[in-house]
Amino acid sequence: MNEILKMAFGSLGVNKLRSFLTMSGITIGVFSVIGVMTAVSALRGSIETGLSFLGSNMFQFSRFPAFGVDGPDAHKYESRRKITLTQARRYVELMQGTSDVVCLKIFANGNPLVQASYANRKTTKGIEFVGTNQHFLTANQFEIATGRNLNASDVDLIRPVTIIGQDIVKKLFPAENPLGKVIKANDRVYTVVGTFAPKGQMFGGSEDGVMIIPITRFIMDFGAEQYTVNIATQAPSQTNYTATMDKGIGAMRIVRGLRPEQDNDFEIYSNDSLVASFAKIADIVSAGALLISGIALLAAGVGIMNIMLVSVTERTREIGIRKAVGARKLTILSQFLVESVVLSVTGGLAGILLGTIAGNALAVMLSVSIVFPWGWALTGVIVCSAIGIVFGLYPAWKASSLDPIEALRFE
User: Fold this and answer.
1) In b/e form, how buried is each residue of 244-279, taking b as 16+ CB within 10 angstroms?
2) N or C: which end of the chain has fewer CB within 10 A?
3) Do 201 and 207 touch, CB atoms closer than 8 A?
4) pTM score, two decimals?
5) Which of 89, 355, 60 has the alpha carbon at shortest distance from 216?
6) d(Cα 389, Cα 394) in Å, to the nearest integer?
7) Residue of 303, 308, 328, 335 whose CA lies nearest to 392
8) Integer Rg of the chain from CA
9) Where in the chain are the domains?
């Protein structure tokens, strides 16, 4: 076997370009699946923290699903009534005695693109601008670094006050204390009463570019017509989480004026449902990668068979000489079969290396942990070995079946 391996590598080295092009098909197929699986594995390892932007024991009602809508179902959600501040406040009243933490939120969502400014300094357009109440910190896992939180009086009295994230602090106040300063956001003025503690990044995007104001002030400054309210509710404990959610759904149906036979015209999601939704998306992406890679590997296997048949033809005289000096049929078959497997596995190893690098490059860009997909890498080696055996078996059998006299006469 040692001699056969030496001959296999030697014969592949004779036609380097041909061997490289043949291996490229295997490399591309393995690269696509390993790259996707590496990225998905890295993302799966961080979704519990990355997607868990709601606080502990929280669930949320909104007009649209958490991951947005597209395709034929888009009209269904677009035609839904907005959740108004009046409805949200009525919901809070109905949940009294069941939950003490009900966070109301309105997101600018790019309409308009909000830009904050102070003196001659400005942030980039599109900061995360939110109208909310005093429960924003609990509902979204933020902490106050300096100053104070919003309170119920800020909301009731429609005060023009704001709390800003560290990205905004660094941009507008690089060398001074922001507390008490008056900043502008799309020509509306707000007094800074607090700053958020740094929170870091989630999937490549900063969570420190947030600016919140009282929800009543948001509606006064920007109007209520084009915005819908999200309502996040915290159960007192994990034990009565389900009961609290059931009570919340009932209260939401009441404020929306739904009859018993009508379906909910709002979405419900929690950290667990967000993780499950991401898992479904990841499974679809993985299935697509496997399908594409399967087609690529099939084409690469046909290429290997073709090259091995060409190699058998070119080396017919060599085969005749080996048989004439005593090489057995099994020895010839093993030689060409090993060459086929070496060609396939070498291409597969290159694909695994490149795929792992590409997948982890994406993980680094999205600020998630680097992983090595040992399971998929082992599967890739096994599949490449199988491809080499399956598609190299016929050329190897053909080589081993040559008549030595006819092979020696071959020109």
Assistant:
1) bbebbeebbbebbeeeeeeeebbbbbbbebbeebbe
2) C
3) yes
4) 0.64
5) 89
6) 9
7) 308
8) 32
9) 2-48+277-409, 81-265
